[in-house]
Write a structure and sequence with these properties.
12% of the residues lie in helices and 40% in strands. It has 194 residues and is mainly beta.
Length: 194
Amino acid sequence: MKNTLLIFVFLSIIISCKAQVIGTLEQLEECAMRTNHDDGCPDLENITYVKDTNNRLNQFVGTWKGNSGGKQYEIHFEKKLQNGEDVKWDRIFGRMIIKDNSGSTIYNSMNEIDNNISFFGDNFQKRSYVMHFVGNYDCLESGDVFIETRIVNPNEMTLYYSQDKDGFLNPAKCPNFSTYIPLLPTQKMTLTKQ
């Protein structure tokens, strides 16, 4: 009788716990490319964890350096597992130092705590991993960053920044908007793994 009661209590606890529904980065990438997301896609409403099952994010982890438009870039990419609140994602987070051609630092997010990082990954679009970046938001500096390692040389990566076109601009907070140059290059640049 005691054993039956213990088994019943144990089964009740298991059944009452919400099961973790795992989707993969590949599944969500495929679903995003379809016009009808429901056709053959996992039940997106019930997914609790989007997992990097094939370790595709690992290719970006590390320190990368490059130059573009008279600026020197040093970017540290780190993979975080199960990041988020309602739905957990495996993501890449980026911290960077940008210096002008005289070597003066114009942007540094190396010491940002995880919750304040404004450069974080979303998902793949074919071979490119899409990340979101927010720099000087008052000057409408936010958008998507596409990173991709080269097939012939995985120690080289291309980076491209697509700045958002919509947003509310307050001229008092960004008086030099007409001459403002974004921190990230809007043309492809090459970074080398260190």
